[in-house]
Amino acid sequence: MRQLYLNRAIAEAVAQEMKRDERVVLIGEDIINRGGGMSTFLGVYDQFPDRCLDMPIAESGFTHFGNGAALAGMRPIVDLMFSDFSALAFDAIVNGAAKFRFNSQGEACVPIVYVMANGGRGAYTGGVGSGCNHSQCVEGWFQNIPGLKIVAPYYPSDALGLLKASIRDDDPVLFLYAEGSLGVREAVPEEMEPIPLHHAAKIMREGTDLTIVAVQAMVPTALKAVEELEKAGISAELIDPRVLIPLDLEKITASVRKTRRLLVVHEAPSRGGIGAEILSAVTQEALRDMKAARVLGAKNIPVGSGFAESLIIPQVEDVVRAAREVIAQ
Length: 329
Known about the structure:
Elements: E1 2-5, H1 6-20, E2 24-28, H2 31-34, H3 44-47, E3 52-54, H4 59-71, E4 75-82, H5 90-103, E5 113-118, H6 139-142, E6 149-151, H7 156-168, E7 173-178, E8 185-188, E9 202-205, E10 210-214, H8 218-231, E11 236-240, E12 243-245, H9 249-259, E13 261-269, H10 274-286, E14 292-298, H11 308-312, H12 316-328
Parallel strand pairs: 2-3, 2-4, 4-5, 5-7, 6-7, 10-11, 10-13, 13-14
Antiparallel strand pairs: 1-8, 6-12, 9-11
Helix pairs in contact: 1-7, 4-5, 8-12, 9-10
């Protein structure tokens, strides 16, 4: 085992897959000089200078370019830095990559991965915040688009294994790593196999009274909340879905059937978020077994800068309060 930061895990996954498959190319801004705008690809250019392409500040253009490379037989990784910038590439992702397989009646595939930092740093108090144009969570923007897969890890080991699987996948994948977890370090095996994108949910803590499904930056927040609830005699089961599409509905539903209560926590605003979709899917499968359910998300306002971000994003005390309310129903 070795200690690995999240940004190093991403770089390692990309380098290993580029070594494994010469069709893998890396596209984005500042790839050559800075290892990407978020320094998530440090060292990759040094190993594969012919397959790392610096792009201008033109997300729409180079995302379409990546789609074309995928259709031509390459396996591009497109770095969009902040997930907020995916709005500029929306046409390429939604009206292009997501539909090429369908429109070609299955003859064309688009093995492309869009890598981006998702959310902000509001789960971490201390005044660090990236503001309303660099802190949004975009999984809700894309969840209603058939043809896309959405991967959303928090921990370095998960990022390493899931990114390797995403690069090998034959369909377009949005790989969303949590912006606030860039400085997170974890013990990671020397050799890490790909983590399959199907049935990817991970039970972080077992419990009997309540199921908490926490997405990305809310996982460590929910872990602290589970510890606080345990002191009060409440046994909460915590699940990190890790992959949002395809969602591991089987594992989540089995947990809810056991605890009979569900709380979904995410960093995005509650309205129209992935939490409502998870709750809906579980309800359709296990309504007769459920006593209560709720979604907890950010306040319905643009994300503020600096310390204001932590006032908008759910904190430990918010998760504890919501869990108690679900238990009381």
